[in-house]
Amino acid sequence: MPRIEDIEQFASNLYEAGHEPEVLAEKGETLEPVPRPEEGLSADLAELFEGIPLEEPAAAPSEGAEPGPKEELPPKVEEGELFEEVPEWKEEGGLPPSEVPPSEEEAFGELPEAMEPTAEEEGSFEEQFGGTPLEGGEASAEAGMQLPEVGAEASEEGITPAETGAAVLEGGMTPPEFGIEEGEPAQKETETEELAFPTPSMEAPKGEEAEKEEATKEEAEKEAGELEEISVDELGGEEFSLGDFGAEFGILEAEEKKEEEPTINIPAGAAEVIAAVAEEEEFSLSDEEFERFKKTLSDLPLNLRRAIEEVIGGNKASDEDQIKLIRYLLAGENLSTIASFAGKLLGRPLKVPKGYEKRTGLAYEAEKETLAYVLREKVLPILRLALASAFATAVLFYGAYLYIYRPLYARSLFRQGYALIEADRYREGNGYFDRAYRIWEDKEWYFRYADLFVKKKQYPLAQAKYEELLAQYADYVHPRTKIWTERKKDSYFERGVLAYGDLESRVLENYEKAEKILKKLLQVDLYHWNGLLSLGDNYIRWAEVDPQKYQEARKTFGTLLQRYGDKDTILFRFLELFILTDEFEEVNRLKEYFEKKEKLEIDVERYAMLGGYLIDKGKMEDVPDILRRAMKANPQVAEVHYQFARLFQATGKARDERIALDRTLSLYQEKEAREGLTRKELWKLIDTYRRDGEYRLARREVLDAERSFQEGIRRYEDAFKSGVLKANSTLGLLYVGLGNLYYYEGVKFQEALAQYNKAEASLIQDPEVSYRKGYIQYSLGNYEQAIFEFLKTESKHPEDRNILFALATALYQRNDYAAASGYYRYLVEKLTSDRSKIRFLEPHIKPEDRILVLNLMKTYNNLGVTLKRLGDRTRKPGLSSEALVYLTDAMELYENYSRDRETKVRGETKNLAYLNMRKILNPALPYDLQIYPSIPLDLRNQEF
Q1: Ranges of H-type helices in 65-196
Q2: Structural domain harbouring 383
Q3: Sign of the alpha-carbon torsion through 121, 123, 125, 128
Q4: The pTM is what?
């Protein structure tokens, strides 16, 4: 039988292995010693052994008791020698001695010889537990044994001292059911540092208070949460050991040869009781099972391991349940099953950390030694982490390459190509575009490149860009099966169709092609709003060269009106249509409708067009209100200011005209820099330069006027060369204006003549321009060219006195005396007619009368000289005589014009007619006949 010192030593090892003192110290508690049990038999055991003799013959053991080995029983031991008095329980939760249930030894009295440990066994037990001082002190000499103290662990777990008792019978014997065989090898000592499993007690478990049970449950749940992610390796499972606890389950050290012991008297009937108990509770562990049990237990989560210690060491369940729990551990049962069963025994749930849910201790320990385990648990996690990191890095880099690097790199290439196109390196710029689009398909750049090509007047390149974009949406037809597959049309398709159609219609005026392009939208949606509007606008532009298309435009807008109602957008389209077809009544009706509607969605450009139409019609009463309303809707539309400039010019408001012209030029230039101008907008910008030049030239701002004319001409010629604009008589006035500047201000006849020639090439057919051209040719001595230009003017103004005099004089200079005389005669008739209309001729008072007298005098002189030349050439004396008549009339007019108004005395000077008369009468005079060679500078001059 083990001594009390041995039991206390075992308890000390158990507490130290379980780290109970440290755990309690962390919680601020101390390990309290367990008081020794009360000496003597309990009342129940005393009553049980009442009437049973203490001694029985050795040859007559009780029935049912298994015969022990052939050893002599020890001599009879008195009851006082077996038990010593145990002090009363002082710790909280303990029971008074009277309520402590009797031990089995008390119940059965003296044990059979076979169950009494021999001296050798006791010695082995001493060796096993000896050598370590016990905390509880030395046992009494009489009893030779010492009870273990209840440490801090028992207090922490809420276990009463009775619950921490040993599972052996008092007296140190293992119950018969553990089946210890003789000669069984002794259990090796384990290091004191290993965790010792608490020894189960044979005492009946005492009841626990409800509050302690609740506290225990909360503590267990808290521990389970804290240990949720703790792995087996972190728990130090390798250091766990049950120490000498194996003796409780029949695993003993190798027994030495036992000496014969004296027999002991066994009470009658004790053997039968022990045998019955042994039959029910027979259980034992081999060395291998015990090692496996320790390993399994050490691999458990901390909260579950403590719970099992509490069940087995604290005697929290019946023996059958404890054995069942042990068998679960030996069988390597799933942890969830073990936790569920242990929790059921303790009356609280036990949570298994996630890392343990699908493991079993024995399988885990066995697997830890294998190469597969090392690879799986040591190498594979690192490899998985490395592979996961590599994969994540690869995915990150690939994603960055796909969605960050490629778009950014493509954008860089797009921009480089765009910059090259701005530098007029179109082929290289397109090459960069193709490279960029292969890397990242950003369709937005199609529109940017196309707009830039339009701005650069590279219209074929812009068309190619739109063709490339729309080709990606072309429906696919299988070459063999001829199965047609429609490709999805997105917003880029709609934008591409509208932009391409606008380019062909508005800029290039390729109306038929624009119609085909725009109808692609109608194939997707028959009533496509933007598609129908753009198609109607194309028909209106087309009607400028084919008026039949106005009807197509009317049908298109009618479809919109029927489908979407009388929206202002549609009505303004009809307004433009009626203006272009000059349907004044319809225009006026819409004008009145717009004026009455307060919340009008104004189409500013078309409303300004209405103002320009009324200016052309001379109906300018409502024009100021129309233009002011349009400007209020959007003051940044240049069309409004353009029409204002026209209005102020027509009404003679020069200051307002100057402001409107400046604002118009500024807005058109800003829009051109921002997005480019349409053909009509460019036309109006150039025309504004013309108006600005004329305004400045009329005010003798020669240098500013010249700059305006030159800038307008430059833009006009660029547009003409690129095909945006065609020859236009209105814009041709730019050449006329610049030519007039050279003609009148700089007297640069050659430069003026060049500008007049360009004006006529630009469809200018102005008689005054022709006259000025004739005047320049006449002044240069190119009489034939001068006559040609004068004849063009004369065809437009056959009775103009200036052109008749200039033409006759040019004919005379070309020695065409007959023709010259004819024109002079006709001019004399016209001038004489003008003289006859004046009742009182007052040349000294009235400038027009003075001019009439001078012009008639010059014509008489020139006609007389011409007739003299013609008579000499044709040898007709009558012509010479007639010449003297006209010369006399010229002399008379001059003398009357030169007389003093007061004295009526002739002037001392002689005119050219007098000299010519003398030459005819005296041919020997040293001079020749002369005419007045100067011709009027233009048709507006009244004096020759």
Answers
A1: 79-82, 104-108, 119-129, 152-156
A2: 370-426
A3: negative
A4: 0.56
